[in-house]
Structure formats: C-alpha cells, structure tokens
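How it folds
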Amino acid sequence: MTMRWFSRMAKICALLLGYCSVAHGAAPTPISTSYCALINDPASFVGKRILVRAIYRYGFEIQRLDAAECCPGKKLKIWVEMELSDGKSKRLFKRFPREMGLARATFLGKFETGGPFGDGGYRYRLVVNQIDTVEAIGHPSEASQPPWEDRNCASENNPTHEGATSSLLHESGHADPPKSQ
C-alpha cells in the first residue's frame, strides 16, 4: 500500500509541476501585424497573441478597433476588451479621455473569434493585455479631423480620389499628443 501511495503522489506531483511550468511560463512571442493584414486575413491570427497598431474607439456601448492608416479592403468589426496586466499600460489607459474618445496606439493581446461579442454585432475581439505605445488621443467631434490621421486616405465611394477622408475622420475629434510618462 505504501508503494502504491508513493507512486500516486509522484504522478500527482509531476502533473502539478507540469501544470505550473505551463501556467507560469513565458507567454508566446506575439505576432506583429498591421491592422490591414489583420482585417484582410483574420483567420490566420485567431487564437494568437498579436501586436497591432490601430485606433481604439470607445464610448457608450462601443469598444472597437479602427484603421490607423489607409487600409483598403473589407470592413471588419473587432471588439476590444481591456484586461491590462501591467502598471505602464494602466497609466497609459488612464490618460485616454473619459467616457468616449479615440486613441491611436499599439496594442498587445489575444485575437479571438466566435462571438457574438460586444452588442452582438462583433464576430472578432481583441483581449488587450498591454498597451505598448500611445501616439495620440482625441475626442470625437463632427466638426474637425484629428491632425494625426492620414488625410490622403481614399474614400469608400471613390478609392482613387486623393485627399478624400474616411468615415473615421468625420467622426474623429481633436488630437492631443500623450503626456510624457
């Protein structure tokens, strides 16, 4: 009986050690991608940790990513959930305008599918664990365009028209560079 008990305990300890090494092991290296690559081939990023530069738009019942640069191709809604895990990211997030706004930043998180996410209209989501950099923040406004947004983006209606503005620009507000840390 003692030998059987010892054998079982050894197996349990081995399982626990294996679990602990996986649970506390280093996270896999994230895949750095552009927003355009993400929306044009989302299936290749599902279940992976990604580093992506995009516009985070948030407000009443909205938390999503938008293009930070001209991005031809299909429109894809990506819900965002902030589950920040470090002090730097939390400090950067506190600088975002309260209640609603925009932030052009580089986010690190896990890209998932399945949904529905958010209000039910989102098939994809990015669970953000870290905010790597913040380039600019802004307040939504119909009257102005943020100076940090590319004004040479082609519009949906006329993709060859230079100087056309995207719908994001029409919704965007005044941009403020982030304050130094």
